[in-house]
Task: inverse folding
């Protein structure tokens, strides 16, 4: 049965992926490989700048860490002579997390909901990239929130999920199996929460640290072909809550996508071994916090 048939047709269902942006991709990739991630092959992106436009080669490219549920995209500029796909704007603010994508089941139903709510969305934005050099083309349907100050905040449906979630590049030494949460700091968390709620079609709730949390219900297969039903979330916090949630992390500017929570399959045993010798903070609940300077500007919390 499809996700749409199960009643999730016009809302988001899961946190699909987050994206870390850097001007130079190679150093970012090296950092994540040092942290125990197995990355997909390098892929240069293509797409349409407008729904009616022609598909063109973009200057941006990525490699990704795919998990059983969700993934982390590492994106940079491969060819500065081509359209940069907003990566240049992202890194002008700061190097780090700038993309939050939510899985959806039906792009047309969500487009109709968003337009009915008054958002001027021109149509479905399509993106494509080869999964590897000379390989098949992965395709995606996207609905970005227009001009969101928090970054690229969007709904996404993978049109070719089996091409991107391939077991051959999902064998992570750190045993991460799921992207579980994104932490975002805003000077106006109520306004940010309203935007995220409007995009996803889901309500927000008070966060115990302050601000709000957007909880996504989860759905089998929503963020990967083998994804289980997993409740994921985005925490939308005021600046004073950042130290309590991600100790030692300082916002370079606001709004700021500060960090992500990654769930491991073995209680962090493998991650602890991989991270040995690095200045990682162990939290009282057994989580391991990698500081932003070791992960391209994004704090990584490995959750047991």
Result:
């Amino acid at each position: 049965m499809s996700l749409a048939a199960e009643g999730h047709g016009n809302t988001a269902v899961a946190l699909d992926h987050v994206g870390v942006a850097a001007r130079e991709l190679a150093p970012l990739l090296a950092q994540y490989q040092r942290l125990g991630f197995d990355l997909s092959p390098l892929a240069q992106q293509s797409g349409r700048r407008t729904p009616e436009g022609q598909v063109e080669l973009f200057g941006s490219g990525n490699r990704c860490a795919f998990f059983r549920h969700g993934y982390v995209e590492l994106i940079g500029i491969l060819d500065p002579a081509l359209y940069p796909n907003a990566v240049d704007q992202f890194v002008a603010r700061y190097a780090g997390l700038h993309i939050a994508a939510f899985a959806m089941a039906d792009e047309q139903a969500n487009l109709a909901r968003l337009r009915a709510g008054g958002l001027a969305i021109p149509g479905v934005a399509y993106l494509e990239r080869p999964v590897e050099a000379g390989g098949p083309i992965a395709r995606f349907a996207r609905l970005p929130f227009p001009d969101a100050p928090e970054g690229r905040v969007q709904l996404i449906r993978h049109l070719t999920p089996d091409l991107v979630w391939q077991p051959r590049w999902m064998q992570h030494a750190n045993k991460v199996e799921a992207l579980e949460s994104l932490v975002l700091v805003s000077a106006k968390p109520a306004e940010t929460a309203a935007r995220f709620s409007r995009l996803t079609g889901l309500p927000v709730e008070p966060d115990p640290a302050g601000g709000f949390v957007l909880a996504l219900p989860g759905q089998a297969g929503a963020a990967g072909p083998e994804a289980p039903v997993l409740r994921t979330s985005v925490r939308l916090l005021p600046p004073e809550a950042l130290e309590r949630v991600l100790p030692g992390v300082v916002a370079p500017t606001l709004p700021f996508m500060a960090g992500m929570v990654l769930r491991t399959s073995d209680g962090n045993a493998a991650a602890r071994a991989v991270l040995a010798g690095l200045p990682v903070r162990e939290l009282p609940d057994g989580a391991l916090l990698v500081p932003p300077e070791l992960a391209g500007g994004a704090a990584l919390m490995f959750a047991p």
